[in-house]
């Protein structure tokens, strides 16, 4: 986060959005994007050459649908992650180039020259394939994207079922009282009295 604000401060202080600097910034952005894509293809070549067929089973969370049980190999898992990272880099490049072409915004180009490289360095792909670290501990597969909001959300153990309004015991209580109760609600009593 400090990197973003620091970069934006440098842009304003050195007036990097002046036309004389634009070519340098475009060159820097092009070099950073090429580096990301080159590393992506390098990771792919290494994953295919290793051909690690170790079975890998895990539950992959789906948006609003619980989770899906995935059975794959280490090679397939890594190739999927590499493809995901490459597609993200290409999509970001398309958006940044469009923003510069259409609106002459140079700040996103400056940020995207720096941030993706720092983000790549923190990925398990970089750590395992380029730095040669073993895929154990935090680098163990399956690799999950880091959730920046995880610290703000309570864990499953912290959320007590009694406190939640949709807990099974609460649902059973409501179902029993609504369906099998001989006691009429206030509205039903008023309706009967009016008849």
Annotation keywords:
two-stranded antiparallel ribbon, SND3_fun, Phosphate transporter (Pho88), 61% helix, transmembrane, membrane, 195 residues, transmembrane helix
Structural write-up:
There is one protein chain. With 195 residues, this protein is mainly α. It has a domain at 2-53 and 79-139. The chain has 7 helices and 2 strands. A two-stranded antiparallel ribbon has the order 1-2. A hairpin with a 5-residue loop joins strand 1 (55-61) and strand 2 (67-73). Helix 1 runs antiparallel to helix 4 (107-122), helix 2 packs antiparallel against helix 3 and helix 2 runs parallel beside helix 4. The longest helix is centred in the first third of the chain and has 32 residues, at 19-50. The chain is elongated. The model is unreliable at 155-183 (pLDDT under 50). The chain crosses the membrane at residues 21-43. Residues 142-195 are annotated as: Disordered. Keywords: Membrane, Transmembrane, Transmembrane helix. Residues 174-188 have a biased composition (Acidic residues). Residues 150-160 have a biased composition (Low complexity).
Chart the SSEs and their pairings.
Elements: H1 2-14, H2 19-50, E1 55-61, E2 67-73, H3 74-103, H4 107-122, H5 124-130, H6 168-179, H7 186-194
Antiparallel strand pairs: 1-2
Largest sheet: 2 strands, antiparallel
User: Given the helix and strand composition, which structural class is it?
Assistant: mainly alpha
The residue ranges in which pLDDT falls below 50 over 5 or more consecutive positions are: 155-183
Mean of residue pLDDT values: 80
Shape: elongated
Give the number of helices: 7
- Oligomeric composition of the shown chains: single chain
The total count of strands amounts to 2
| Radius of gyration (Å) | 27 Å
Helix content: 55-70%
- Strand ordering within the main sheet: 1-2
- Share in β-strands: 5-15%
